[in-house]
Design brief:
The chain has about 575 residues and is an alpha+beta fold. It has a domain of about 90 residues. It has ten helices and 25 strands. The chain has a 23-stranded antiparallel β-sheet that branches. Strands 4-5 form a two-stranded antiparallel ribbon. The longest helix is centred in the N-terminal third of the chain and has 39 residues. The N and C termini lie far apart (about 100 Å). The C terminus is likely disordered.
Length: about 575
């Protein structure tokens, strides 16, 4: 009986002490987690207070957000946390009892500065809630949520609605380092409306965004292996110029240590469909961008990241060129692929970079460039090139009238008008014509009549013969200037001329073998080897790329002004060439 009673009392004591003992282990594990977070994530997290209890503990943590400029100061966020001791946990977070070291509840309220933009019913709700389970064995699992928000910035004419966020982050700590991480977030639909006058975009809608990642640290090299994805079903932009929409955006990144010596990394971006107002290419469906780096030096990669991570401020960064070049191996390759399919044709290009066989590794970029091999392959639809040429020519010549023709011609016409007026002033000062007659002459001039009709009108005023003859000559000069302006090519004519010029240049390149036309596709291969650049195996012609796609703008003639006329303004010289934007 006594043994039974003693055993029962012992069990009660053990059960009673278990949460307290759990709290002792929790405190050590919690402090370790904060230390690892500061070191690994480059965060500034400080434990201000920690109070241990029997069944619960509390902590106050300060997160410091560094300033992005010298003017602004650092921002601090204070978190109040409640740590519920295990080893058996019950709560709203767990659907069933869980064996774990502790549950940590973190609640963040909206900062004061943001409350003026929130709805009244949102002022007292938590902006961020984090429920963390600290398991035995240094495994941490956090479920994160943010509520739906409606934001109004009335003075700026902007409002927005967001459907909130849910997600989780898990990590395992081993040897005081994060060993494995996994995360998944779902961001609700976001809609931003603008009522600002003069703003082209009135509404932007981003459908729910999904983010996933899973990485494991390679033990010996301190490199992360795994992948991450971001996907957006659709983005719609509504504005004065029409609607732009994007469907099916996905970004995938993956990295992997393939052996003790090599490391691979790839990034892929894909868009299923893209519509943009007034887009010369029409609908893009789909478009894919792929970048890959293979057989990188795993040890060099590790040294690079370790060096960057050990730097506490940008001013302490060492020379990065030797570190970056140390990531290469004799078999390292870089590949970039761009594949775009449009309503106007397709564009496919691929670029490759590698070291030449038997090339020695170097820590000098200049030396590396002499040992590198580059190749670019292009397959482009002829229809797509035609569309691009037309769009380019239209853009280049759209402002021609205003930039190169109008300025020069108007200067010349203004000079001729000033000279004409000065001529009349001189005659009035000499008493040869009256003020009323001068006004009548200017009125006739402003009708821009043919020269014969102008002479007939002028004869009706019964002017002295020498005066009438001089005025008539000056009027003829003015009319020639106006006719010269009218005879200049319009932007449409200049655009047509530029398109023809570019097509002639392309045709000559095809005839010389710099471009290969295969049915409705242009084929081009660019190579760089041993310091020599080739196009389809041929050396580029001298001056081949010295602005071949511009056409000099025709200028109106600058007519001479009679030097006998006093106080005449100087004529403008105009612009000799259309400007490239």
């Amino acid at each position: 009986m006594r043994k039974t009673l003693f055993f029962a009392i012992l069990c009660i004591v053990i059960v009673a002490l278990t949460p307290w003992i759990d709290g002792v282990f929790l405190k050590k594990s919690y402090f370790t987690f904060i230390d690892v977070l500061n070191h690994e994530a480059r965060a500034k997290v400080a434990i201000i207070e920690y109070h241990s209890g029997w069944f619960h503990s509390t902590a106050k943590v300060r997160i410091t957000i560094p300033s992005q400029s010298k003017i602004a100061s650092e921002q601090n966020i204070i978190l109040d946390q409640q740590l519920n001791h295990g080893p058996v946990l019950f709560g709203a977070y767990q659907r069933m009892p869980v064996i774990a070291l502790a549950e940590i509840v973190t609640t963040i309220q909206a900062p004061e500065w943001s409350k003026k933009y929130l709805m009244v019913n949102q002022l007292n709700q938590a902006m961020l809630q984090i429920h963390t389970l600290a398991y035995f064995g240094n495994y941490w699992y956090s479920q994160i949520s943010m509520p739906a928000l409606t934001i109004s910035m009335q003075q700026n004419g902007i409002s927005g609605q967001w459907e909130g966020m849910t997600g989780f982050v898990s990590t395992t700590i081993k040897n005081n380092r994060f060993q494995q991480t996994e995360a998944e977030f779902n961001l609700g639909q976001l809609a931003i409306l603008s009522k600002l006058p003069g703003v082209f975009v009135s509404r932007v809608t981003v459908q729910p965004v999904a983010i996933k990642s899973q990485y494991t640290r390679e033990a010996s090299l301190n490199l992360w292996n795994g992948n991450a994805t971001l996907s957006i079903p659709a983005v719609l932009i509504q504005g004065n110029l029409g609607n732009a929409d994007l469907e099916g955006l996905s970004i995938i990144q993956s990295s992997q240590t393939t052996s003790p010596n090599f490391y691979n990394s790839t990034v892929q971006i894909q868009i299923n469909k893209l519509n943009v107002p007034n887009n010369v290419l029409g609908t893009i469906s789909p478009a894919t961008f792929l970048f890959s780096a293979r057989n990188l030096n795993a040890k060099g990669m590790s040294d690079f990241f370790n060096t960057i991570q050990s730097v506490s401020s940008p001013g302490q960064l060492p020379a990065l060129e030797p570190l970056a070049l140390n990531m290469l191996t004799p078999s390292t390759t870089y590949d970039v692929t761009l594949d775009i399919q449009t309503a106007s044709g397709n564009w496919f290009s691929r670029g490759d970079a590698s070291l030449l066989p038997n090339a020695a590794l170097t820590d000098s970029l200049t030396t590396l460039m002499s040992n590198i091999y580059l190749q670019g392959n292009f397959k482009i639809s002829t229809l797509l090139i035609d569309k691009l040429i037309t769009a380019y020519a239209k853009h280049q010549t759209a402002a021609m009238q205003a930039q190169s023709v109008t300025a020069a011609t108007q200067n010349n016409i203004a000079a001729q008008n000033a000279a004409f007026n000065q001529l009349l002033i001189n005659y009035m000062q000499e008493g040869k014509i009256s003020v009323d007659t001068s006004i009548q002459v200017m009125g006739i001039r402003d009708q821009h009549l043919p020269v014969t009709q102008f002479n007939a009108k002028l004869d009706e005023l019964s002017l002295p013969k020498d005066v009438s003859l001089t005025i008539n000559n000056r009027y003829q000069e003015l009319q020639k200037q106006i006719q010269a302006q009218a005879a200049l090519p319009t932007p449409a004519a200049a655009q047509k001329a530029l398109v023809e010029h570019i097509n002639q240049t392309l045709h000559s390149w095809i005839m010389q073998g710099y471009i290969i036309q295969q049915n409705d596709t242009y084929l081009i291969t660019l190579t760089y080897k041993n310091g020599v650049f080739l196009i389809n195996g041929k050396m580029p012609l001298p001056g081949m790329f010295s602005d071949p796609f511009t056409v000099p703008a025709q200028q109106p003639p600058v007519l001479p002004v009679n030097p006998s006329i006093k106080s005449l303004p100087t004529t403008g010289t105009g612009v000799s060439r259309t400007s490239s934007s």
